[in-house]
Amino acid sequence: MVMIIPKLVEFVCERYPLSSQVITEQYIPEFDITDIVYNSCQTNSFDRYHRLNEEQILPRIFNKICYIYGQIKPKKIFFLTVDGVTPRIKMNQERSKQFQSAKESLIKREPLADVVLPGTAFMAKLTAQLRYLVAKKISEDIEWRDVEVIVSGPDVPGESKHKIAEYIRLCKSQADYDPNTKHCMYGIRDDLLLVSLATHEPNFALVCEQDDAQNADERKKSQYFLLHLSLIRECLEREFSSLKSSLPFKYDFERILDDFVLLSLITSNDLLPRLSGLQVNRGGLNILMKIYKEVLPTCDDYIQNGGQITLTRLEKIFARASTIVESKLFEEQYVEPICKLSPPYTKPFDDPQHQQVATMPTFITETETVIFNAIRNYLSDHTHSSVLRFPFAFSGEQRSFALKLVKDLDLSCLIAYSHASKVTELELSFAHNYFADEADDDHSDCDPSKSEPSKQSRLNEKRQKVLQEYSSLELITDAEFNKQLEEKKKKELEPAIEKWKAAYYKEMLDIDFFASDLLEHAVASYILSIQLINSFYYQGILSWRWFYPYHYAPKLSDLKDLGRFQGFNFPADQPFTLHEYLMAVLPPCHKRLVPVPYQGLMTDYKSPISLFYPTRFYTDFNKNDLDEECIPKIPFVDEKQLLEAIQSKQGLLREHELRSNRFGEIYHFAYDKDQNRIYKNPSYNSRLPDVRPCLARETVYHPPAVIQDKPILLPGAKLGKDSPVGFPSLDHISHDSLLTKHDVCVFKKESSKDTMIISIKNRYTDTSLQELANLLIARQVHVGYPYLKEAIIVGVSNSEYKYFIKSKEEGESHNFSKHQWTEEEREAWYKKKCAIQHKYNKRLGLLIGDTEFMIHFCLLNGMHRNEEGAIAKRYRHPSNASVIPLQTIVIKVSNPDDRFTCTQASSQGIEAKANRAWHALNDNIITHNTLNNNTITAHSIPNNNKVDHHNTAWGPLNDNHDHTTRHSSNNSGNKYTWGPLSNDHSNTNTIHSILNNNQDDNPNTTWGPLNNDHNNTTQRFSYDSDNEQGLKYLPAREVANDCKISALTLSKITSSLLVMESNGNKLNVGLNLKFEHRKERVIGYTRKNSIAGYWEYSDRAIGLIHEFIAAFPEFVDLLNTRKENTIPHTEEFMWTTEQNDYLYKMRDWLNNREIHSLHRATI
């Protein structure tokens, strides 16, 4: 089953295809896990009778949270929210959803779907375990320690999006708020997109998940991608830029953005029934955007201001939309069905195109004058062609005019329109074969009319009279005529339209269209509901209990005289309690989820509220394309009756049921090393261990008070080319934009909607390949426009030659060589170019023009400190270079990433730093900051001195050392030996490194067990595999980060890893420490976390992994950058000419360490 993309998200992505990107970057704070709860409740099995239990669901939720956390890498705030009790206007939508889901399960004879609603026992457990998870991660995972975590569970009222919007509003009101704060929110819902836009925070991204699973195996692979609001903002600004010159008031894009949010809300929100014809999937938002551009210049200001809508301006939008949308619906739903039932060639209403007007017209239009003059000129001069051509298609009225004029002139005609040339042809003919003017004496002998002079004379006189009559008609403009025609049609069709609307209101809303008070109530309720929902995004929840009491919306043409509703004050009220909420939304088949005293209210036919819980009801799919837009015709809950019935049973509740009805608090977590307490596991899950010690300080979060109101876009916010690192912009390259149909393919299908096409300008014309090589090779640039990433250019090419960088030898600067393509290479180059252009064109809507040159680049992999102490950038190996069209690169950015700043080595500074570090080792532990990110060079340490390398600290190796702190990798540029401590050390499994200035110059790291004199580096790597006592294990994600490789690469090298030789044989060169399919692990090296479900590696395994990486760095780098999901081949070993020998070297390395003889056990 392919996951359905929300319609507004689909509309935005297809209209602005550059705004969506497959996830590769890391961002930050707000994190809405309501979608995670929903997705985690879905089974990977396609068996419709299979349902997951709570012990399976909760680990899925927590795994997803940890995974997304690792992807976005928060730096400041991590906001976990779950939907709580929602406003009444949202409860009606949830109630319909629950009733329809239960009905479908009954029809299909499937088990009832899982219900994840606030107030249920499951959600109470989720809240407790979320708090436990955060406390555990902060205490045990260093990546969580610098981040504040806020948890707002389902026991806190409000939808997740409202909680997040409120949090951002409060933060923005503080005096010290940074206008360039980066935000990231998880979710792929239309409302989350609108919430993000309404914050006016330019540095915002949505992490979205697209599940395109066709079967159970594919469902395991979810694709995560980003929606960049910075690009959506820029595209919207370009689309509405035409208003700059036409508005009678000041142009303000932020105000236009608010109006766009309102128009999107009208067409896509799920809290109100859609206005007929304005659904997003029917082009409703596209229609409103076009109308907005036309109507706004006629207004005195924007439609809304900070969430407050000016209804008279909105009315203008509705009035224009009704003439377009409603007339089309009237034709579809009323006129066409009647025409199908009527006799052939008849219509229910007068059609000027199919009747001839018998009376003389009283006026003539501008276009009709053109037709009249052409016919008159033909009559006055016989040399004119009898075929008259007009560069426009005749309307029905113009056709009728031409036919009457020709008839009055006693002529015959044939009217035809050519679609190819877009020309109307009017072919005239006379009653006789030839006619000429009487004054033409030269042809009098040939004129057959001479035989009847009196008859011809009368005919000429008649024609002259007709021409004079038409010439004397009043001339009116085409616009004035069209207006009169519309008024006439409206007057003629008004009875039929009223009949059509009356039937709609009676059937859909159950009200009398001609009863003005009932119609006004429906219109008022709908308009005020729009105002209420819009305020959710800007002002918070103005009313918890207001709702729209109909299943369908009024007609667009009835949304008029809206000014009378301006200034309405919503009643101040409180949210429903948790029990009241469940009773209001759940169907009777889910009665087990409410306290026992309330269950009879749902199923007992004598219950005073039994009508609220029908077991049979009609579902109207309303001609919508998707089932989730169906409308269950269930009764609305009467709040007063519901609360009275609940109150009558409240005395029967037990203590734990009363507790479950209380609202909770928002909790704030932060790392505190001075905390020394035990965080108890949730009482209902004894499998979870207590957190000992708990280093997380947990307090009740109190939102800050509003300090001052600030503009919607704060001063100092960096936009465009100055945007913070990681947030893309179109402004990095000069370009043009055009909104047109382009058939882009964003979601595996071509779009028929309008798309904004970006055409970039080629800045490298009239340049030779040699000049480009001299200019660009070995130069740092940014690639991937508009999602820029730093890279270094290692080659340039065209269809004939390639200039490529040579390996840098010792003491030699970068240089390059020239290579002429072979025929096969030339064809491959051309195919690659075409593939890239096609992707830019059809996926991104980016036109890059003809590509003459391609650059070959290597992406930045990170930073490292070399042996001299300088911090330098590390790029991928040139054998893994990628190609991209030259015109898409960016040479320089105005806001470079300060995380990748190189520093030069200072000999005096290095020596002084090493001396300070060494003296500190005598009695103290040196922290990360002391040694500047855990890096110290080998030659800086005095001879024969040893250093203990830990993740959190450095310390001397002495006989009584008992530290058990876990290991973290160092840079491969240093020479050190890894292994377990033996003999006199209390912990024989702690991993240490020795920096020894007397080591030989062999760059390969030597591995082996360390004895008490720390000089033996020749023994093979060996452990007692049965002894696991005292071992420390780290999650796979942390180990991968530690090793500077991807989690996928880590999984590959620690499992069975097959490589194909040139003769076709396959060789296993993996470490074979874990076996997922066999459900096996290696004792003392790996284990699988039974709660979270991820693999963990011991200190022993980490040492072995580092040894493998150090021995075969090129092979690991190949795995880390390889995109194909196939068995690697030795032909890919571009770093050596002896590919098979390199493979056999790996095999011998594994055999020497007897990796395959390590003991295994089941997971």
From TrEMBL:
Residues 1017-1162 form the Exoribonuclease Xrn1 D2/D3 domain. GO terms for molecular function: 5'-3' RNA exonuclease activity; RNA binding. Residues 3-209 form the Xrn1 N-terminal domain. Residues 445-462 have a biased composition (Basic and acidic residues). GO terms for cellular component: nucleus. Belongs to the 5'-3' exonuclease family. This is Uncharacterized protein.
